[in-house]
């Protein structure tokens, strides 16, 4: 029942920087306990942020550019791990990195491959700690989508809550986990902030609609919303996954070209906010949700959250209300995944990703010394208890 101190690192589909969280975790029988120690975001330098966005489809990315980005992102993750060590009072046992997704290859409804960059050797070299990374690929190789991996945390965390409940994460892409339903299930519902951020950047030069101000000043354009909702992704059966390789600038431009004229920036933001809320709400209703617990950057957009609550007739909570910080949930998820791999337990929930069965996830890069792993856990955890900690 030793406590292990783990740093979790991830940069989501919004690509604004590296979210880092420090946490203590331990296994007590089939119960996993998690104590947050602190979290923050380390923004990408403007040039690196620009180059990452340029490498996304429909842009091109040569082998030389891919190598350069993999190195620079790895070095930035290493710097973020240094910040994480400060949050952990200078001591940690392990780093887990979900890296930066650059491409998620989905064809005919099946995930064929996934690419996360951010070379873990830079993290190991900078911290001297072992690093668990490349956490999605094994699930894909086992027939899953490699996303959303949040299903494993959500299923443990909400195991004792009334259901069916939905854990919702609104990042660049929005995803849900259904807990307490007929079967474990998780999938991407569609764009979260991805199209909103893109339209805001075009309108204001800043890649976010701060406090939903632009959306609040506009009106939903039904002609554009109809075009956007016609996307067949929303009618595909789960499990399913998507990303910015689909919901990107070219996608938005095609939709605008098919809609009517005279769409103002404010109306565009109002319509995209409605799209995100509508597609999330449709998915939650389809799963019979009796409660929705939301996290991710989108919960800091009051207009989006209010629109979602208006679409649903069940309570919509923010995860902070249940003890899990909304802003750092994905970084804490990463720490949890690293901990599970380190202890020889599976990190995927097959029913949520579509994988053929439970799998140990990731690859391990040794730290400064010999690799000394603990004996494999005797039990696969069945629930997660979040202990009081520093949620800053």
TrEMBL record:
EC number: 2.7.1.170
Transmembrane region(s): none
Protein name: Anhydro-N-acetylmuramic acid kinase
Segments of this protein annotated with the region Disordered: 365-392
GO biological process: 1,6-anhydro-N-acetyl-beta-muramic acid catabolic process; amino sugar metabolic process; peptidoglycan turnover
Matches recorded under PANTHER family: ANHYDRO-N-ACETYLMURAMIC ACID KINASE
Catalytic reaction annotation: 1,6-anhydro-N-acetyl-beta-muramate + ATP + H2O = N-acetyl-D-muramate 6-phosphate + ADP + H(+)
Species this chain originates from: Saccharopolyspora hirsuta
Record carries keyword Nucleotide-binding: yes
Classification via Pfam families: AnmK
Pathway: Cell wall biogenesis; peptidoglycan recycling; Amino-sugar metabolism; 1,6-anhydro-N-acetylmuramate degradation
Keyword Metal-binding: no
GO MF entries: ATP binding; kinase activity; phosphotransferase activity, alcohol group as acceptor
HAMAP family, sorted: AnhMurNAc_kinase (MF_01270)
Positions contributing to ATP binding: 12-19
Gene3D superfamilies, per database record: 3.30.420.40
Gene it is expressed from: anmK
Function: Catalyzes the specific phosphorylation of 1,6-anhydro-N-acetylmuramic acid (anhMurNAc) with the simultaneous cleavage of the 1,6-anhydro ring, generating MurNAc-6-P. Is required for the utilization of anhMurNAc either imported from the medium or derived from its own cell wall murein, and thus plays a role in cell wall recycling.
Assigned keywords, A-Z: ATP-binding, Carbohydrate metabolism, Kinase, Nucleotide-binding, Transferase
Homology family: Belongs to the anhydro-N-acetylmuramic acid kinase family.
NCBIfam families the record matches: PRK09585.2-6 (NF007146)
Enzyme class of the recorded protein, top EC level: transferase
């Amino acid at each position: 029942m030793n406590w292990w101190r783990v740093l979790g690192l991830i940069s989501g589909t919004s690509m604004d920087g590296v979210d880092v969280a420090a946490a203590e975790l331990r296994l007590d029988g089939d119960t996993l306990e998690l104590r947050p120690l602190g979290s923050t975001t380390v923004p990408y330098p403007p040039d690196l942020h620009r180059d990452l966005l340029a490498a996304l489809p429909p842009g091109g990315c040569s082998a030389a550019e891919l190598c350069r980005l993999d190195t620079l992102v790895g070095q930035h993750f290493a710097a973020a791990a240094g910040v994480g060590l400060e949050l952990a009072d200078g001591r940690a046992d392990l780093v887990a990195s979900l890296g930066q997704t650059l491409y998620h290859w989905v064809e005919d409804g099946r995930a064929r491959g996934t690419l996360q960059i951010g070379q873990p050797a830079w993290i190991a070299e900078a911290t001297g700690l072992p690093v668990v990374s490349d956490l999605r690929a094994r699930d894909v190789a086992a027939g899953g989508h490699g996303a959303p991996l949040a299903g494993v945390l959500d299923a443990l965390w909400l195991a004792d809550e009334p259901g069916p409940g939905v854990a919702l994460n609104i990042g660049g892409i929005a995803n849900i986990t259904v807990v307490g339903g007929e079967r474990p299930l998780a999938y991407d519902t569609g764009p979260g902030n991805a199209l909103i951020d893109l339209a805001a950047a075009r309108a204001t030069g800043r890649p976010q609609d701060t406090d939903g101000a632009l959306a609040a000043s506009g009106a939903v354009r039904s002609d554009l919303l109809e075009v956007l909702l016609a996307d067949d992704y929303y009618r595909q059966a789960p499990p399913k996954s998507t990303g910015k390789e689909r919901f990107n600038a070219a996608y938005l431009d095609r939709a605008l070209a098919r809609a009517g004229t005279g769409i103002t920036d404010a109306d565009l933001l109002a319509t995209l906010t409605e799209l995100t809320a509508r597609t999330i709400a449709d998915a939650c209703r389809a799963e019979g949700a009796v409660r929705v617990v939301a996290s991710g950057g989108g919960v800091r957009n009051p207009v989006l959250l209010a629109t979602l609550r208006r679409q649903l007739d069940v309570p919509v909570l923010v995860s902070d209300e249940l003890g899990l910080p909304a802003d750092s949930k994905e970084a804490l998820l990463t720490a949890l995944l690293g901990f599970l791999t380190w202890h020889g337990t599976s990190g995927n929930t097959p029913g949520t990703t579509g994988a053929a069965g439970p799998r140990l996830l990731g690859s391990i890069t040794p730290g400064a010394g010999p690799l000394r792993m603990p004996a494999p856990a005797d039990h696969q955890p069945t629930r997660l208890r979040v202990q009081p900690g520093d949620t800053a």
